[in-house]
Amino acid sequence: MRKALPPLIKALLEPARYANPTTPVARVELVETHASWLLLAGDFVYKIKKAVTLPFLDYGTLDKRRVCCEAELRLNRRFAADLYLNVVPIAGPPEDPQIGGTGPIIEYALRMRRFAEAGRLDHLCARGQLRPHHVANLATVITTFHECAATAPLATPFGQPKRVLAQASENFAELQALLPRHDEQSRLARLAEWTNCEFDRQAARFAARKAAGSVRECHGDLHLGNLVLIDERVRMFDCIEFSEDLRWIDVASEIAFTYIDLLDQRQPGLAGWLVNEWLSGSGDYDAVPVLRFYAVYRALVRAKVTAIRAAQANGDPGRAYAYLALAERLAEPARPRLIITHGVAGCGKSRASRRLLLGDPQASTLRLRSDVERKRLFGVAPAANSGSPAGGGIYTQDASEMTYQRLSELTANLLAAGWSVIVDAAFLERSRRDAFRALAAHAGVAFFIVAPQATPEQLRFRVRARLAKGHDASEATLAILERQLAGVETLGSDERNCLL
């Protein structure tokens, strides 16, 4: 049962306290979190911070709550200026508070514009209405935000290897106190050992990513409940304002949070799709080796937060145990495999690879698209037209060699990081297929080929339709299709044994 409400919150549930002559408030709804009260009144939301001190935040005094309200307003206006309006004082005695009143201030509230709660991504996910195109839009929103976010100066401790390990270690210390049962203590010990080993393997990479500018002033709390679909566009809100350590983080840690939340919602296809769309848009493949470390860390952060909430409400910590199990699964991924596609333009390679991604129950498959990576090599946006003639520009023989070499390097690195890889490329020549088959053998992973089939009439129809639609990374024309059909080297009998 809910504890008795504080007098201030109880009084603020009275609709008459929210003067709005144009849209009278008929009812005030209350949402409680472990650190805040949210009062939903008409067109607005008033967020009041609890006077609590937790291991990771301090709202213990009125002045600290004011400072945090002002910081929350400033930080969230980076990406949601239309939703975050102002900080308002609350005056008067707690039993008769006046929002925006004069006199001694007893509390502060962050005033926000209200949106339809049904549009939150966690609610969409629960109703089975979250779609790949929503997740693709989310990946674009995150990438765009990160590109504009401030970069942590090298002299700051944010994102330095010692700080990364310290945050993970603190997490375990807090979880050990929150989950005292013997079984959970043993599981936490194993996860702590994995975390330390993985950190040792990636310590140099953490440092390199800090030096490269990958540590930025991020959102910090990017789970599905802090994302909302408004007018078919995903919006972020409610970033972390109370801790610079939790906000100035590697962008890989940011994406890992949403990734594990989709996994927790039993949406591995969408989780994998998010990571792939983010990597395709950002080109930050250097993040992949540290992504699993951050995913385990984020799952354990969620375990800690849910355990704290359960303790506050004298409830069941079952959700914390579920996150613990998720962390264990992430720490022991399935053995990687390498899949390449084969076929001319319009045969359905990208559709087939998309199905494989969305169908991966482990969400541990990454796709490399030759059309996207070729353009990235030459500084061309994925959906932009390079203006290259057939066989010229970025499609010369030398450019193709560079593209396949880049795909090979990326594939080797991703496999070494423990992720399965799909290389979505034409692979019309036997020599190029053999090179990637040898790469799989060297990495000790299984090798497969996906070779969709279509009639010449279907191929021509699809190429014409794609060109008419535009906004696709592929620039294949009917003339290019005919050249491919004339030059394709069909699969040998040994290769047909690798068909997936």
TrEMBL record:
Membrane-spanning residues = none
- Which InterPro entries does this one have? Cell-binding_unc_protein, Kinase-like_dom_sf, P-loop_NTPase
SUPFAM superfamilies xrefs: P-loop containing nucleoside triphosphate hydrolases, Protein kinase-like (PK-like)
What is the protein's name according to its record? Uncharacterized protein
UniProt organism field: Candidatus Accumulibacter aalborgensis
